Amino acid sequence: MTPIVAVVGGGQLARMMAAPATALGLTLRVLVESPEAASALPAHQTVVGLPTDPDAIQRLLAHPRPAALTWEHEHIPADVFDAAEECGVPARPGLHALLFAQDKIEMRTRMDALGLPNPAWTHVDTEGDVEDFLAVHGGAGVLKTSRGGYDGKGVRVIHAPHEAADWLRAAADGGPRVLLEEKVPFDRELAVLVARRPSGEMRAWPTVESIQRAGVCSEVIAPAPDLPGDVAAEAARIGEAVAEGLGVTGVLAVELFLAGDRILVNELAMRPHNSGHWTIDGAVTSQFEQHLRAVLDLPLGDTAPTAPWTVMANVLGGARATLTDALAEIGDPGAKVQLYGKGVRAGRKVGHVNVSAATRDEAYGRAVAAAAIVRDGGAA
Amino acid sequence: MTPIVAVVGGGQLARMMAAPATALGLTLRVLVESPEAASALPAHQTVVGLPTDPDAIQRLLAHPRPAALTWEHEHIPADVFDAAEECGVPARPGLHALLFAQDKIEMRTRMDALGLPNPAWTHVDTEGDVEDFLAVHGGAGVLKTSRGGYDGKGVRVIHAPHEAADWLRAAADGGPRVLLEEKVPFDRELAVLVARRPSGEMRAWPTVESIQRAGVCSEVIAPAPDLPGDVAAEAARIGEAVAEGLGVTGVLAVELFLAGDRILVNELAMRPHNSGHWTIDGAVTSQFEQHLRAVLDLPLGDTAPTAPWTVMANVLGGARATLTDALAEIGDPGAKVQLYGKGVRAGRKVGHVNVSAATRDEAYGRAVAAAAIVRDGGAA
């Protein structure tokens, strides 16, 4: 019997699990919101429904039972974990770990408890709380909803208490709690990806640099260039400390701020992550294969890079409507294009391009150029 | 609209096209002999039927029409090409090219016409023809049926005319014609893979060495080590001459004998080939992505290796019944396992392992060791 891995999610992350699932002889059963979802086409088995629908979850967990249940996003209702437990299907990462990727206040509290480097932060209930924090942190702060944020949503830079009024009111009405963080004067954003399996084995990929534009990841450079001192080692240590301290199973992404040689935890994701797409073409083991290995408690694969430099450039929705048309126009034979099979909307992540090269400048220039062709048809 | 590529074949070659089809944003529609076929699980769309069934072919070609029709094997009835032409779907490689992979007499005749290096050979109708050939070629020869051979079937070493009697009788009764080739005293077997697209662009991967055991490929070493003189360049020249001379579209494999520094054409395959599985993990562009690019007339990808050495070791059916069990037992994190989702039978190709390394010995030893674990559970 082929082991089944069940995945909640119709997006590109579940989609990109299909290739390594096939290679490993697994069956990938995916819960999708619609038959047109990005992951539905390559999935081996498809269940249509929402994670909030108990019937859909039962179909996802039906016989033959999955060997593991996992996610491509953190918005998983607690009921799903109960249903999995009743069926004897291990849910990985588990709710106790996933909580820290779902809720930023829980995450910050836990980072503090683990002695890991947080920005200054506080939970805020009132405009008075906001005023007090701004007063001692230079008059500016980053306001966040504790839950539900993604790609710049649920995050806002503020300079005065009244700018927090709507979210504080929503929180008082039972909405997500609100936290306020120092506006870290960071120079660069880094990310470390670590996989951990239930029996404890962990493997980290090289620390990468993530270039953000308008709050969305634009490019990732692997490895992160010219890191001061022992920042690379410290990033890896933080990644493993989070994975172990939170009992993560699967792939964990820790997004980090680098300010001078000070390194701070920004966000966590417990799933394959945009900052790890370079591993598909630039590492011995991709984050997607590794996630499957980890949730099945299989030995983890080698995370070594296969080239001196790999750069991933995201393709956000732009002028071109039919992305496959770009395949005829890209003149770079080493541009590794990955399309997500999603309808094009402005700013939506619809694909990415990886380029590996001997120099960082070459990898960066070629990846960005090819992504621009996919997006707009040549207009960089 | 997502371009559709239609593929005839339920085996591992069609199966391994699914991952690059997904990456390129294509839809892979596969004709399989049964829903349990190796390619059925990862295929994006499945049509169940045989290539000899006109109704199945119509469903394979149905609206939305495929952008191209291709094959994972050469046993394609001529009717299929007619059906594709009527629908306006390009069939690649076309019948005029595929003929030379279907029929060894046509192939040898054509190699001679192109001035490419054949072993001595002749078409034989009678035991007298056999006797004449053996008399001038050292009393031994390799008897082949012109059509239908595969993995050592339809091939026989003979030393006397009567050993050809059954195949000659079958040929006289309307079966496949028979040819007799010199028994080449080869030292090694090489293979060169070339992709060619309709507009003429060609790209070859580095020439590899294929290690055969009992007529079946056991390991492939990329690149072929320690080739004398200009054998590597000559192999690439032969590959491109065959691709161009025969008007191949898609991936072409030319299997070669190396005898001293003499190089001879052994067999042709017009599809991804076992000797190219190393490209999945060891080259910038895999043979499966390249085949899709070629049959769609898209620019071809870079064929450069990503490591100094990559060795592919086939997994033939052995003691282990459930191959995924091996994933827990392989202690080598750099062993890239590919399982074909096929039932295990003795000697059947059911998977392979690629290992890339800095030295040939390391890559070879590790690939063979991991393949042995997949096959038998540790008994090398």
From TrEMBL, chains A, B:
Its EC number is 6.3.4.18. One of its GO terms (molecular function) is 5-(carboxyamino)imidazole ribonucleotide synthase activity. Keywords: ATP-binding, Ligase, Nucleotide-binding, Purine biosynthesis. Pfam families: ATP-grasp, PurK_C, RS_preATP-grasp-like. The keyword Nucleotide-binding applies. It is an enzyme of class 6 (ligase). It catalyses: 5-amino-1-(5-phospho-beta-D-ribosyl)imidazole + hydrogencarbonate + ATP = 5-carboxyamino-1-(5-phospho-D-ribosyl)imidazole + ADP + phosphate + 2 H(+). It comes from the Bacteria. Pathway: Purine metabolism; IMP biosynthesis via de novo pathway; 5-amino-1-(5-phospho-D-ribosyl)imidazole-4-carboxylate from 5-amino-1-(5-phospho-D-ribosyl)imidazole (N5-CAIR route): step 1/2. GO terms for biological process: 'de novo' IMP biosynthetic process. SUPFAM superfamilies: Glutathione synthetase ATP-binding domain-like, PreATP-grasp domain, Rudiment single hybrid motif. Residues 108-296 form the ATP-grasp domain. The keyword ATP-binding applies. ATP binds at K104, K144, E181, E182, K183, V184, E189, N266, E267. One of its GO terms (cellular component) is cytosol. Belongs to the PurK/PurT family. Homodimer. Catalyzes the ATP-dependent conversion of 5-aminoimidazole ribonucleotide (AIR) and HCO(3)(-) to N5-carboxyaminoimidazole ribonucleotide (N5-CAIR). This is N5-carboxyaminoimidazole ribonucleotide synthase. It comes from Demequina lignilytica.
